[in-house]
């Protein structure tokens, strides 16, 4: 797979990534290497990564607990303290080896430590390969509210090693798949169509789809790094999806949802809103609904759940002047940003989601 050029960095694949690191990580350029991992990547990915990392610079491993609930400022404070105690300085570099929590949080820690040190993302989950590690968004949650604190600053590089996916559960793979499906829905109908016969795809097909998904996100971000325009398209499914994810995260009586599971629900709901606003045909909506419901479990929502989820929408970071902003489909493969939808449309979408 050829290297993908972004605004200020490149996305490398497999051996090209390791070759890039060997050329970059010189004692004349960096004083110390920190590798951030969580409990899972420490066990399943770190040994392979270190075995392929050719450098004479001292390496320190810093580990955090696994899970979205640890993507917060308290974990950042622990990491800032660890970097300080381990001799980190302005010439240190942080390599984030992990999923979306590790790359989001690690990037934020790097951007703020000593007013900013270089960092590299090495995503180990499908979700982080096609979404979280790409585009320079770094940040943490505020309580249960997703990604409220953060900064946009691109990494030094992203290195994608698809073999790390062999360590993932099917549930984690499906979570990442949601973001790939989203890229087709908002940008490329032909790409979306490739997922209609998912069971027939093999490993080579998946690698090609991952590459294409990264290309789509990179094209959008390259046009609008600061998210003032077209980059908002990437939020399709996330306005309601993030609210659902936050609600299930904070409610002890609910089973936590992975990011992709919540976004898949959000995409169905926001596709229904798109249809109600005459942007999406009924046929296209049904196609989206049934393909996604075939891939992801249907979650039960009662009236109280929906009310609480709608209340959380006010905290969505896309909102402007107190108005909730949606990115809605304008047919499969196209998007309209800065769209409003009242609560009646949201309730109707939840009602239809319940039906088979």
Automatic annotation (TrEMBL):
InterPro entries: Dehydroquinate_synthase, DHQ_synth_AroB, DHQ_synth_fam, DHQS/DOIS_N, DHQS_C. The keyword Hydrolase does not apply. Gene3D superfamilies: 3.40.50.1970, Dehydroquinate synthase-like - alpha domain. Signal peptide: none annotated. It comes from the Bacteria. Its EC number is 4.2.3.4. Residues 176-319 form the 3-dehydroquinate synthase C-terminal domain. One of its GO terms (molecular function) is 3-dehydroquinate synthase activity. Its cofactor is NAD(+); Co(2+). Keywords: Cobalt, Lyase, Metal-binding, NAD, Nucleotide-binding, Zinc. Residues 62-174 form the 3-dehydroquinate synthase N-terminal domain. Catalyzes the conversion of 3-deoxy-D-arabino-heptulosonate 7-phosphate (DAHP) to dehydroquinate (DHQ). PANTHER family: 3-DEHYDROQUINATE SYNTHASE. NCBIfam families: aroB (TIGR01357). This is 3-dehydroquinate synthase.
């Amino acid at each position: 797979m050829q290297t993908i050029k972004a605004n200020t960095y490149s996305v490398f694949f497999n051996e090209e990534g390791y070759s890039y690191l060997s050329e970059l990580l010189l004692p004349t350029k960096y004083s110390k290497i920190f590798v951030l991992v969580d409990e899972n990547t420490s066990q399943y990915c770190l040994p392979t990564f270190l075995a392929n990392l050719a450098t004479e610079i001292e390496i320190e491993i810093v580990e955090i607990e696994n899970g979205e609930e640890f993507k917060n400022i308290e974990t950042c404070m622990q990491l800032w303290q660890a970097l300080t105690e381990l001799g980190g300085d302005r010439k240190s570099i942080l390599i984030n080896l992990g999923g979306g929590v590790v790359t989001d949080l690690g990037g934020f820690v790097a951007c703020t430590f000593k007013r900013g040190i270089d960092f590299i993302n090495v995503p180990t989950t499908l979700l982080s390969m096609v979404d979280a590690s790409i585009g320079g968004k770094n940040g943490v949650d505020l309580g249960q509210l997703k990604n409220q604190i953060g900064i946009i600053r691109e990494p030094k590089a992203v290195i994608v090693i698809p073999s790390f996916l062999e360590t993932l559960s099917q549930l984690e793979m499906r979570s990442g798949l949601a973001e790939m499906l989203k890229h087709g829905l908002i940008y490329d109908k032909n790409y979306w169509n490739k997922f209609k016969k998912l069971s027939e795809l093999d490993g080579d097909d998946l690698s090609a789809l991952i590459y294409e998904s990264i290309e789509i996100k990179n094209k959008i971000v390259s046009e609008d790094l600061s998210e003032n325009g077209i980059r908002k398209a990437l939020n399709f499914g996330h306005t309601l999806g993030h609210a659902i994810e936050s609600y299930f995260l904070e409610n002890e009586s609910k089973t936590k949802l992975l990011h992709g599971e919540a976004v898949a629900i959000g995409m169905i709901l926001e596709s229904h809103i798109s249809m109600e606003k005459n942007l999406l045909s009924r046929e296209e909506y049904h196609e989206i609904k049934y393909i996604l419901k075939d891939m992801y479990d249907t979650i039960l929502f009662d009236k109280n759940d929906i009310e609480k989820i709608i209340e959380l929408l006010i905290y969505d970071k896309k909102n402007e002047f107190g108005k909730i902003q949606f990115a809605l489909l304008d047919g499969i493969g196209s998007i309209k940003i800065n769209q409003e939808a009242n609560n009646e449309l949201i309730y109707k979408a939840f009602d239809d989601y319940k039906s088979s």
